[in-house]
Amino acid sequence: MFPQFINGSIIKDVFSDYLTRVKLAINEVAKATTEPEVYRYLAETLVNHLSFNRATVRKVNWEENTLSLVCYVGFTEVPTLKLPLSEEIGAMGKATLRGEGMFIFDEEEISPELRSLSQYDRIQKEAHTLLCCNSS
Amino acid sequence: MTEYRRKHTHSFAVIPVKVKGLVRVVFEVDRMTSGGRITPRDKEILDLFSETVGTTLERVFAQEELKAALIRDELTGLFNRRYFMNRLSEEYERAKRYGIPLSLCIFDIDNFKLINDTYGHIFGDQVLRQIGRLISGAVRHVDIAARYGGEEFTILFTHTTLEDAAIIAERIHRNILNLIFPHDEKGIQVTATFGISTYSPVNIREPKELLHQADMALYEGKRQYSKNCLVIYTGSGYEIIQRGEIRLEPYLQTKSVEPWKTLSLHLYKNNSFALLILGVVLPIIILFAFYYGKGYKNTFPIHGISTPDNGSNQIGLALIETPPLGAKSKDDTFFEENLISSKQKIQRISNKPRTGRKERLLAKRKIHLRPYSLLTATKGKKGRIFGSEFVLALNDERGKELLAQQLRMAFLLAYY
To answer: If contacts are CB pairs under 8 Å, which of residues 2-61 in chain B contact chain A?
Structure first.
């Protein structure tokens, strides 16, 4: 038997730690007062509290049919600023047009030579907010 | 993007954020080998997170909308008067403290009331909206352009001398003259008169004085130079620096009356003033007198009462323009005729026998009932459009008739 099944408190601790982090992340986002702040807090908390390596936030412009980059964390280079809104661009276009989340749980193993890059990426945890998000 | 992701990431998720049912934002997260994989538990958390962000965004959008409503004029999109006055005080203090030039321009659309009365308020709104858009495009980001009143606009030019402010104002003036507003397959043009003043420690000692001098320059432009011009306050006096080409009254500026315009322009260019007065101005005055003399009783104080196009008489919508504050009724005869019946009506409304106290209270109420609050005595939905213009909508069985009756009552209470 695994130890967590023997002692229920271990599993409780693990979950409570994770839930505490989630709660903290939600509180972080909820305290935003302006639109750029929402995007910045969102990207930061995703990386800092929910242990994702990278995060990008894009604003949907339904008039121009584009996805504009408003904030990114964990990238060494600036991601593409504007993407056309169509299902051809992949999961992002599909998620936007269908209005539901797209999850790729296990896509591909990363090659060993790229691991150093991923390690480098992990330390770039400062959010870069592009202040081009005038609400329309 | 996809290629890049494929090479670098292990697993990823894209989550849309909905605000009022519409996807407004989409965020993407990656997790690499070293950080573990995205698990179904993460999916639940991210969905929850998406909802939180959506709620926060909704709140932020609402706050920003509210903030914009507080400082912006709804019709033109420019700043409103309150915000302008606050910024004027701030900029004035800054100019005074650091000796920075500060200029102010005020202008209004000539004969705007006539435009409203001839083509309707909807058309008037269209004119204001387009001029607002024109100003927004003409001024710099640091300038503060606002709608000061009904058809009056102000621009505060920060760090700008009188000469530079005049250049921008000249450009705006020219652009306004070039605007053509389509109406029933006709092209209507408008003119504007500008007044500009600049801060000087000698002549201007408070922010309101800067505005006042610009306003006086505008007034001079209207009084002395027959509108459609740009007048500056130099510190010692008023000087005209730009005059628009001669234009007739707006209702004559349509293609349908082109011969009138051509004739008047021809007479004006040939200095035939006597002919101009006899041939054009006099008939205009007669037309005016006839027009107003005929329709006076019907148009005052109610501009128009309309009912829906489907012929239903149930909903009445009235557009009212009140006389200036404290002014007496122009149509005394109308009120005198209705005086006796109105007293009876008042008694019927109150539904109680009159006592001495009641009469005294009513008398006090009459004194305090000013044009701006007279509509409180009426039923239905009320709203102030701008300045002295009000709109009143009533949904009742008798609709239109009752509305007219109520409005007359309200005016009787206000002015008797």
So the answer is: 2, 5-16, 18, 22-40, 42-43, 45-50, 52-53, 55-57, 60-61
Alpha-carbon distance of A66 to A83, in angstroms, equals 6
Neighboring chain B residues of A52 at a CB cutoff of 8 Å: 29-31, 35
DSSP codes, A82-132? EEE-SGGG-HHHHHHHHTS-EEES---PPPHHHHHHHHHHHH----EE---
Listed in sequence order, the residues at least 6 apart from B23 whose beta carbon sits closer than 8 Å to its beta carbon are: A60, A96, A99, B16, B17
Residue ranges of chain B whose pLDDT lies below 70: 1-10, 32-36, 245-281, 288-416
Please report where in the chains the tokens 């894209």 appear, as a residue.
B14
Q: Report how far residue B366's alpha carbon sits from residue B359's, in angstroms, rounded to the nearest whole number.
A: 10
* pLDDT one-digit tens code per residue, A28-59: 888 888 888 889 988 888 888 887 888 899 99
Q: What is the least distance, in Å, from the CA of A4 to any CA of chain B?
A: 18
pLDDT digits (tens, 9 = 90+) for B51-71: 888 999 999 999 888 988 899
Q: Are B88 and B103 in contact (CB under 8 A)?
A: no
